[in-house]
Design a protein that fits this description.
5-stranded mixed β-sheet, 3-stranded antiparallel β-sheet
Amino acid sequence: MDRANTETAVTFMSDDGDTPAYALGWDETNTTLTLTPTELLDMGTWYNFTLSNNGQAADVYTLTLTSTWPATLPITRTARLFPQEQTAIPITLTAPLTATSSTPNLLQLTAYSTFDTAVSVTATLQTEIHWPVFLPIMSHN
């Protein structure tokens, strides 16, 4: 597998076009790439995953999603992507009302090649809730 080529196969960015900083990591067999943000993502911001076929042949990708919090992946397979073609992958993540900063969410989106089943790419996002603290105003006369 061409690691440099694969590292550009999946990206995510905010709806205003900003790409958060993230680290790339490979498994020991060099068949699974993991993207992990290195900064907190902004609350109330939409983030979009993009999957690109950087291979030499057309491919269809099977998608799986795991998440601690409720999450929706409306598709489980991409349409056929020709070389250098890409597709957006929408995911909806809902933070439960009981979420606290001590209960972060771990979301993993994995795309498996159907052309070469040993090849996959995984994007891992950790989401945390940081609730503001409101203190009462007290005056002393």
